[in-house]
Amino acid sequence: MKVFCWDTSALINAWRLYPRDIFPSLWTRMDEWGNEGSFTAPEQVLGELQKRDDELHAWARDRHHLFKPADEAVQTELTGILAQYPGLVDANAVDEDADPFVIALAKATSAAVVSDENLKQNALKIPNLCSHLGIECLKLLAFFRDVGLEL
User: Fold this and answer.
1) Which of 14, 49, 51, 78 is 20 to 30 A (C-alpha) from 95?
2) Distance CA 42, CA 107 (A)
3) Which of 6, 2, 1 lies closest to 105, judged by CA?
4) Contact, 78 vs 13, CB < 8 A?
C-alpha cells in the first residue's frame, strides 16, 4: 500500500477547489484512505490548520488520528534535514512550521508527499527538498491521477 504524507497547502487547496458539499465522494475517500493508513500528515499540519479555525480545521480536528506526532524515526530524519538545510525554518519556530515535519515523516515512512507548493529554483520549498532527498512529491491533481480517483 502506497502512503501519502499531506502538506497543509494540498489540504487547503483540496478543501477550496473540491468542497465537501459538491464533492462528498472525495471526502469520503479521504476518510477511507485515513482508515487504511494511506493518508497521513504530521501533527504540525493540524497546527497550521488550527490558525485558520475554519471548516477544514474542524474536519481535520475530528480526524486527529491522521496527524502523527514525531516519533524517534521522524525526529532522526528531521535532525538530518535541518542539519543539511539550516535555512529551512527559523530555529526558534521549528515546531510551528510543518514543512520539515512533512518531509521527515515521508522519509521515515517511505511515503510520497502531496503538496501544492511549486518547484522554485534555488528555494527551500517542499518539492525542491523532496527532489534532493529522493522523495516522490505530487501536486494535488497528480495525486488524484496516481490513486485513480474518479469523482
Assistant:
1) 14
2) 12
3) 6
4) no
Please state the pTM of the whole predicted model: 0.93
Largest CA distance in the chain: 44
Helix (H) or strand (E) holding 113: strand 112-114
Domain 4-147: top CATH class: alpha beta
Neighbours of 21 (CB within 10 A): 7
Residue 137 is placed in which grid cell?
Answer: 512529491
* Cα distance between residue 73 and residue 62, in whole Å: 26
Could you report the per-residue pLDDT of 3-58, keeping only the tens digit for each?
Answer: 999 999 999 999 999 999 999 999 999 999 999 999 999 999 999 999 988 999 99
Residue 101 has pLDDT above 80, yes or no: yes
Give the residue carrying C-alpha cell 535555512. 87
Grid coordinates of 46 = 493540524
Strand 137-138 and strand 112-114: the pairing is parallel
Rounded to whole angstroms, how far apart are CA atoms 72 and 57? 27
44, three cell numbers? 504540525
Neighbours of 23 (CB within 10 A): 14
**pLDDT tens digits, residue range 102-122?**
999 999 999 999 999 998 888
